[in-house]
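Two quick folds needed for the group meeting slides. Do the first one here.
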Amino acid sequence: MTNLLPAYARITAILPCYTTAGDSTLIIADDGSTTTLNTKVRTVIQRLAKSRAVDLTALKNRTKAATGRKNLEPLPIAPGLVLVPVKVRKPRINGDTTTGYINFHAVTAVRTSTNKPYQATITLSGKAEVPVLWTSVTINRQLALTRLAVSSTPYSLNALPARSFQESFAGYSPELLTLAVKLVDVFNEILAIKRQPYS
């Protein structure tokens, strides 16, 4: 399968799609070209990890510990391929994949979408655009969690290039956003505890 795919650093997105063969996967490259595989996203991710001799279970456990996420964790597969999970579709039937992955390195912009039911659009290098069911706030949170995940892997934060897009508000700092994400998680946990009935 790997000979059908672009080089790791050229992959901008791995997305679920429907074809005549059923639930399939669309790979978008940095030049905008696409490859469709008659296999599910999960299988593509497993094969990419295996081709890099990456223990996917250990990688997920490490990024879960770094980010505090129980699922939909970022996946730093290779120095040029850091996969960020995003919800891109509603399933036709139970069990269909709803989550795709974008390459952190390929993100050039995140903006609100007016094309319902999508709430945001992610622009990737090569000018490909991925409509997403999540809000732009949620996507930016996922990007911040990805920075945390990368800090816990052999691919250090220094390996991540400077983002090629600027946030729309003054004083934006990726380091502060990461801290803010952690604080929001703590507040959410406190609120969840307070909502629990006393026994």
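Then this one, please, same format:
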Amino acid sequence: MNKSLSQIKDYTYHKDSQVSWIGGYPNHWKLLRLKFLCSIKTGDRNTEDRRDGGSYPFFVRSQIPEKIDTYSYDGEAILTAGDGAGVGKVYHYINGKFDYHQRVYKFSDFKIASGKYLFHYISSKFYNVALLGSAKSTVDSLRLPLIKDFSVCFPINPSEQEKIVGFIDKQTNKISKTIRTKEMQISLLKERKQSLIQNAVTRGLDPDAPMRDSGIEWIGEIPQHWGISHNRTLFTERVEPGKESLPLLTVSIRSGVSAGELSEGENLRGRVKIEDQTKYSLVQPGDIVYNMMRAWQGAIGAVTTTGMVSPAYTVAIPDSRIRPKFFEYLYRTPLFIHQMDRHSKGITDFRKRLYWQEFKQMLTLLPPLDEQDRIVQHIDQESTRIDRAISLFQRQIERLKEYRATLIDSAVTGKIRVPGVEDPARQEALA
């Protein structure tokens, strides 16, 4: 695809920058602080990272923790007005979604070094070096004085800058195109997995099985020997207090019920102290748990370990006619997520709640138990194969991103000499 960095030539001589994260740089390059290379302005706004009106915006998290009215992530925690996020990320509810509040620094009026060269340089260095290495607070801020004194090494010759920028653009475009192709393959695999699950839990595994009209428009045809039942005949509600020694489990719209308590680093909810364990609900293996606030998005699943869950969750005990894992697969399909959405009460999405009385009125498909077992086994096997393929593509994407970042960093700091650029030191030595 691309040359490895070891195959790209480097410059013959370097001088010490006296800057730890720059190290040496080519003799004919210059080292200046950013404030001598361009004008820098600040402002707060939410926008995309793109060139805007001839200047280049770079985004850094604000050093001022913002206050938020409410915040919910998979129903795992609620921060109320007056709480500081304090975990390096600040969210605002904007246009129907939570978004970062970021501080924008705009660079313009470029001198000596071109704007595009600085764009690559700063994009490469600010977060990984300046932000993480120089930030002085828990929210990873980068103040204007730090930005102004940020060290930049660069070739004085505009032609060399242009060749470096051209090399970076050409190589990163190739890498980005490959990444997009792999991301598309991941999307197709996820669609295939979703289709596989929905077909299995709503039509069975036998394509030649006789079908009948379910009598329910949104369900359509089902295998002739399958039943349909209201949840009130299949489940009873579990209302038992939690115990201090048990792990606190969560329900995610992405992965169902957690197998164990998530660490503090994995989950914001881990930072919330539990003052009264009795307010939490006991869950046992085989129970079905759903998040009342996020059921309309598919936050439902089967429990595999004894634990306790938030009082915002509802716990249901299935009877002997249904396998919990089959039910989880069924209710995490778009068809049945939509059913939960229809039965949820609330004037807006983020105020919707699926209460027990509404859950009981919902419908569930009932294949014979042995067929439920075969369906679950089939989905597990096929999903594992698809997940492995997805994981492989994801690892490839991460390696490509790492290579892209290293390539940019090496080119803009003179660690490699891009094709078409001469080495003055070598020319002088040969003269």
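Slide caption for protein two: Residues 191-386 form a domain with the Adenine-n6-DNA-methyltransferase TaqI; Chain A, domain 2 fold (CATH 3.90.220.20).
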